[in-house]
Amino acid sequence: MVECFKGMLEEWKVSRESLCAMTTDNGSNMKRAFQDSTNFSSVWLSCFGHNLNLAISKALKVPKVDSAIRACRHLVQGFNRSWKKKRELRHQQAKLALP
Predict the structure, then answer these.
(1) What count of other Cβ atoms lies within 10 Å of the Cβ of residue 33?
(2) 34 burial class (0-12, 13-18, 19+ CB within 10 angstroms)?
(3) Which of 9, 30, 52, 85 is the most buried (most CB within 10 A)?
(4) pLDDT recorded at residue 16
(5) pTM
(6) What is the mean pLDDT of residues 41-63?
(7) What mean pLDDT do residues 28-47 have?
(8) CB neighbours of 45 closer than 8 A, spacing ≥ 6?
């Protein structure tokens, strides 16, 4: 991994000393390659977007969250499939001055 990255830096004409930080996913190979101070003098940071995606994916697997999402989908499908429910919803929204 490190050799590949060194090759990219050479191709782009970027010196390793000019780097202040490295951002990658949390793969063990990436951690090992970039946390080892002998390869690069810069700081390794895990990608926030990748961490957020992992956290959300894990949260969606929690049984209570999964159940709540299924209930919401069922509710939305009920309104999407029934013109009578849509009409009643619009009526109630107008009555309560809601968008």
Answers:
(1) 19
(2) buried
(3) 30
(4) 79
(5) 0.56
(6) 90
(7) 76
(8) 21, 22, 23
Q: What is the reported pLDDT for 89?
A: 93
Shortest CA distance to 21 belongs to which of 2, 48, 40, 1?
Answer: 40
* Residues in a beta bridge with 15: none
Return the closest-CA partner of residue 41 out of 11, 7, 12, 18: 18
Residue type, 81: R
User: Could you tell me which of 30, 42, 43 has the C-alpha nearest to residue 2?
Assistant: 30
**52-80: average pLDDT:** 95
Nearest Cα to Cα of residue 52 among 16, 25, 23, 14: 25
Q: DSSP for 16-51, please give it.
A: GGG--EEEE---HHHHHHHH-TTT-SSEEEE-HHHH
Q: Would you call 98 helix, strand, or coil by DSSP?
A: coil
More confident residue, 1 or 83: 83
